[in-house]
Amino acid sequence: MILRQHCDRNTALHEWTDSVAHKHRDRGFTFEAGIGLWVERFEVNAYFSTDVPQLRKIPIRIFDRLLNLFEDAEFDFGGIDMKSRFPGGYSKEEILASIRFMYRKVESEHVYKLIPTADKNFEDLRLMQHFVSRLEHSDWSDTPYHFKEIQDDMTSTLKRLIGVSKRVIAKNNDLLALHFLSAFHLTEVDLKLYGRSPNTRCLLSVDSTLSGHLSLNLGLYRREKGDWDAVELARPNWVARLAGSHDYTRPFLLTDLEEAEYFWNGTGSETSFTSAIKVTSGRNGTCILRPVRNN
What does the pLDDT look like over 83-116, one tens digit per residue? Predict the structure, then answer.
């Protein structure tokens, strides 16, 4: 809390503390990422599960992604003959304005609804169908953050407060990362604040990337027959350093700690969500993360 009070705003450290320092965990990038993961897994998948996605109600996350398409400098119209559709000329701005006119945002239902008069705009609806269909196979998750961003903010804040040398932090950066992973292991994103079903939970847990580095991953868990089971997730098209080692959690915060060196027995981090974790001394004196159940 002291670091939060004195760190600069709009930094990774401030965003992180926004995510975990409040009772309801309803702000900050961790909350946004957790809600986004739920929306992707359940709302987005359900929306595209039909042969022709319906256009009367479009989930907010999908609609916002559609609007962002037009802001991409590399966006193209995917083979549509726009000149024949708009012989008098067209622009992305005009199409964007038309789409915004056709829909109204309904926060209570987490959707954009087609206004009644837009039902008759058949050409515009066909165009919408084309654009929406292009979103189905896009990556819905942002790439992970790196702990170094938070560490650098901690270093500058501590130096301002007590004059601690940057070398002191650098010398102990592995230990700092281990304690950070341990402290925020099993932090929960409260999905109920988004109006979601209470039988689904979203948790941060220590896990690893495909490259073998320890990370804090986001996962979704559903209650089945009295037990909490991990929900399978789509795997984004990321390089090994960013991608998860399996399909049941997704990396959110990366570290440079190698699982083989810094996790109990050099493996097993993918099952760490079943217990607490602590920092302890390994056989060679190096500090490692160890599941409490192995005591």
Answer: 555 555 566 777 788 888 889 999 888 899 999 8
Structure tokens at 167: 């070398």
Residue 277's contacts (CB-CB under 8 Å, 6 or more residues apart) are 181, 182, 185, 206, 289, 290, 291, 292
> For the segment 111-168, what is each residue's pLDDT rounded down to a tens digit?
999 998 876 777 778 778 888 887 877 777 789 999 999 888 888 887 777 776 666 7
DSSP 8-state class, residue 138: S
Give the length of the chain: 295
Distance of CA 158 to the CA centre of its chain: 28
pTM (two decimals) = 0.79
Q: Which of 246, 212, 252, 209 has the alpha carbon at shortest distance from 231?
A: 246
**Rounded distance between C-alpha atoms, residue 130 and residue 93, angstroms:** 17
Q: Residue 84 CA to chain centroid, in angstroms? A: 40
